[in-house]
Design a protein that fits this description.
Elements lengths: L2 E5 L2 H18 L4 E4 L6 H8 L11 E4 L1 E3 L10 H13 L6 E2 L8 H14 L5 E4 L21 E4 L2 H7 L12 E4 L2 H5 L3 E6 L5 H9 L17 E6 L8
Parallel strand pairs: 1-10, 2-3, 2-6, 3-5, 6-9, 9-10
Antiparallel strand pairs: 4-8, 7-8
Helix pairs in contact: 1-2, 2-3
The structure holds fructose -6-phosphate.
Length: about 240
């Protein structure tokens, strides 16, 4: 059963998770962090900025959950750019130790397997930060994704493209495909930390935590994991029983 923590606002949520990450950095010799993009994890990255001085981050490895396919890595909304801007630069991490799946079309066939092998070689993810889509996705594992899935190419749903249109000039500019860690990949992380804020996440959160475990609600896969922390604001928690 997941531990569910309901807090007043995202800043408090960010601080809680950042404290946990600092503990990991201080106690594990070669810590591995699973990084999410999108709006949800930003308060965590923000809170980390003020907490890392005096802590050795030189060995911190990171693996992003996903990337758009066919997007120029230099595009400001590629997840490579987002991770550089929001995580690597402000936190002073070694860019060579922070990976984002490779969304280049030419190498997409084996990019997923290469990525999962790199996670294994790093010793696995210690703490995986997760957001949740309004359709219940984690990573970009859209409804119907296998719980055994590994990192691979997926097609984004119309809903997800609409949800992410705010990062682009229009919904037509949101890529159609992505490469995402699979649900099986995500479930191998040792600690899952799922965050959600706002009323528009309430239904997905309730379905994920209290509904049946179903591929139609990919985030319900977290019910299969032994160590899950869910951090919500009151609005995102409003449909929990
Ligand atoms: C991002 C990711 C997605 C997002 C989800 C919620 O790396 O994997 O699952 O966490 O789409 O997005 P936001 O946080 O923008 O509401």
């Amino acid at each position: 059963m997941a531990e569910v923590v309901i807090v007043e606002n995202k800043e408090i949520a960010g601080a809680l998770v950042a404290d946990e990450i600092v503990r990991l950095i201080d106690t594990v010799a070669e810590p591995v962090l699973g990084l999410a993009t999108g709006s949800t994890p930003l308060p965590v990255y923000e809170a980390l900025r003020g907490r890392l001085s005096g802590h050795d981050v030189s060995h911190l490895r990171g693996f992003a959950l996903d990337e758009y396919v066919g997007i120029d890595p230099e595009h400001p909304e590629s997840y490579r750019s987002v991770i550089t801007r929001e995580v690597i630069e402000p936190l002073g991490l070694d860019p060579a130790l922070i990976r984002v799946p490779n969304g280049a079309i030419e190498t997409i066939q084996h990019a997923g397997d290469d990525y999962d092998a790199a996670i294994v070689a790093a010793g696995g993810v210690d703490l995986q930060i997760l957001g949740i889509g309004t359709d219940g996705h984690i990573g970009f594992n859209e409804p119907g994704s296998s719980f055994a899935s590994t990192t691979r190419i997926k097609t984004l749903t119309e809903q997800t493209r609409k949800d992410n249109a705010r990062f682009f000039d229009s919904v037509h500019d949101v890529p159609q495909h992505c490469i995402t860690q699979g649900l099986g990949t995500i479930l191998r992380a040792r600690h899952l930390v799922l965050l959600a804020f706002g009323e528009n996440k309430a239904r997905a959160v309730a379905a994920a935590l209290e509904g049946p475990i179903s591929a139609m609600v990919p985030a319900s896969a977290v019910q299969l994991h032994a160590h899950v922390t869910v951090v919500l604001d009151e609005a995102a928690a409003s449909e929990l029983k």
